[in-house]
Design goal:
- 2 copies of one chain form a homodimer.
- Helix content of chain A is 15%, strand content 40%.
- Chain A is of the alpha/beta class.
- Chain A has a 4-stranded mixed beta sheet, with helices on one face.
- Chain A is globular, with a radius of gyration of 16 Å.
- At the A-B interface, strand 1, strand 4 and strand 5 of A face strand 1, strand 4 and strand 5 of B.
Chain lengths: 139, 139
């Protein structure tokens, strides 16, 4: 038995690819369009970690997707949480839970999927502007 | 950057462990109880695939968790989809989408998290009772 992917539905594929690829840093592994079913599947993964994927399901006749509480988040570790959050912030992503502790941050996708970002290894030393940055919204 | 886990909330930890471990076949990797926050985290993974985990979050003052449409499912590949589905069925799990095609099946967790089960490699030849088994509910 082997983990393959977590599937999330996206209401706008272009916006979602900006978020997941350009901003968060995942890369597109493969894509399949289903003309008859009128949907597109796009599989994403972190560079060098292609075995664990996120599957974006884009229905061409899209609707806004509500969020439930049974699903929590997707989590990724990064080498430098401050660098990752700075890059996300510079590209316009709201850092809902800034890495005040040098260890954990949360952002959300365009469809409100929570993404947890965790520092690889030990927490980094507290550092401004993160150390005193307040939470924004929920995640 | 590396995928760590997908987090789902569970309203009853015992029932959820029966489902995810005894029935679905994941194993518990580690567990942490937070007395002050009144919650327990349990990390699960497929045997031999410990790098890709599911994190169960159990709040001690639990509520029923609704489901949204932005989250779709978790997917696992298995060596013999008929054997896996038979074992799930024998243990009382509803096979919402039977593997009629020898390739894909869906079940749901006690908190309605959809789990996709995919045959590793090529689809198996169609086989009864699966080939003529109808769908039950949605997933």
């Amino acid at each position: 038995m082997k983990y393959l992917h977590t599937m999330v539905r996206v209401s706008n594929l272009d916006e979602s690819l900006v978020f997941y690829c350009q901003q968060l840093g995942l890369k597109e592994i493969r894509r399949k369009e289903f003309e008859q079913g009128r949907f597109t599947l796009v599989f994403l993964a972190a560079e060098g970690d292609e075995g664990a994927q996120v599957e974006l399901t884009y229905n061409w006749d899209a609707q806004a997707y509500d969020e439930g509480r049974n699903f929590g988040h997707l989590a990724y570790s990064v080498k430098d949480i401050y660098a990752t959050c700075q890059q996300l912030k510079d590209s316009g992503v709201v850092i809902n839970r800034p890495p005040r502790d040098g260890y954990m941050a949360f952002v959300r996708s365009p469809d409100n999927v929570s993404i947890e970002i965790l520092q690889e290894g030990a927490p980094l030393a507290p550092k401004e502007p993160w150390a005193s940055m307040e939470n924004t919204g929920n995640w």
